[in-house]
Specification:
Length: 276
């Protein structure tokens, strides 16, 4: 790791001197860490390419697949299938996959261990490292949403509050899931292998490639419990306006349960040092 790690020494020590008053707040410390992480992310060409370009390319292949689906009786159109899936792609590649690599790399380079000896708290370290990926994912989601709305004639969302809620839940859910997944990689090279199980299940079972409405009822009921499914459900319901209060509460509860479970797992089992 060649970028400079922000100085975040304990108050009253020389290590923290000269950092400015902005570094004395949690927001200032996380912003400094996020700037350093953004620099490192820009130097990792493979991670940056996967995070930026993969979510932009997948919708083109998905469009041809959706065109061949029989959507009659589902209340869905090509646009209402593709648009939420684009958001799912951004969450999986720009946020989840890239962050698994980030956490694994910083752990193996002992960066996380060094940061814990300073002023930064554990939650600030993980959140600060996640901010660039989350920002890239958010920008991608907005750009893809506007593009899909214009090119696929989706129009404005009928229940925009559901779409916003789904996006926010997704951005809150996937960073802690990435942190937990990083535990299963013994090296930076193995980080992408560790992401494959959850990514494949999410791509094929959460309504991204195949909407739950075209699945058998029992399979759809099982897939509703996957972490990405409530996000896709809320965003899709935001555009179609056909999501009932019961389904909305169910999707919201599932997403919150995953967030709580992931945060608990991070606090309990996240590895800050390499396996020896």
């Amino acid at each position: 790791m060649s970028a400079t790690v922000p100085a975040t020494g304990k108050p009253g020590t020389d290590k923290g001197a000269g950092t400015g008053t902005g570094m004395t707040t949690a927001a200032g410390r996380m912003a400094a860490l996020a700037r350093a992480e953004l620099t490192l992310l820009g130097r990792s060409k493979a991670t940056l390419a996967a995070a930026v370009f993969m979510p932009l390319l997948l919708p083109f292949s998905l469009r041809s697949t959706v065109d061949q689906m029989d959507l009659k009786g589902t209340g869905l159109s090509v646009g209402s299938v593709v648009l939420p899936s684009c958001v799912g792609f951004s969450l999986l590649f720009a946020v989840y996959s890239s962050l698994v690599s980030v956490y694994a790399a910083r752990r193996e380079e002992l960066v996380l261990k060094r940061l814990r000896t300073g002023e930064l708290r554990d939650a600030e370290i993980l959140a600060g490292a996640a901010l660039p990926s989350v920002a890239i994912g958010l920008v991608q989601c907005l750009v893809l949403t506007v593009a899909c709305a214009a090119l696929l004639d989706v129009g404005a969302p009928r229940a925009p509050h559901l779409a916003v809620l789904g996006l926010l839940l997704g951005l809150a859910m996937w960073p802690p899931l990435a942190a937990i997944t990083a535990n299963f990689s013994k090296s930076v090279e193995g980080a992408q292998v560790a992401t494959m199980p959850l990514m494949l299940v999410s791509l094929f079972g959460s309504g991204t490639f195949f909407p739950l409405q075209v699945m058998p009822d029992q399979l759809a009921s099982a897939c509703e419990l996957l972490p990405l499914t409530p996000v896709i459900t809320l965003i899709r319901g935001g555009w179609t306006g056909g999501l009932s209060a019961h389904d909305t509460l169910g999707a919201f509860g599932t997403a919150v349960a995953w967030i709580v479970l992931a945060v608990f797992a991070v606090r309990r089992w996240f590895r800050w040092e390499p396996r020896r």
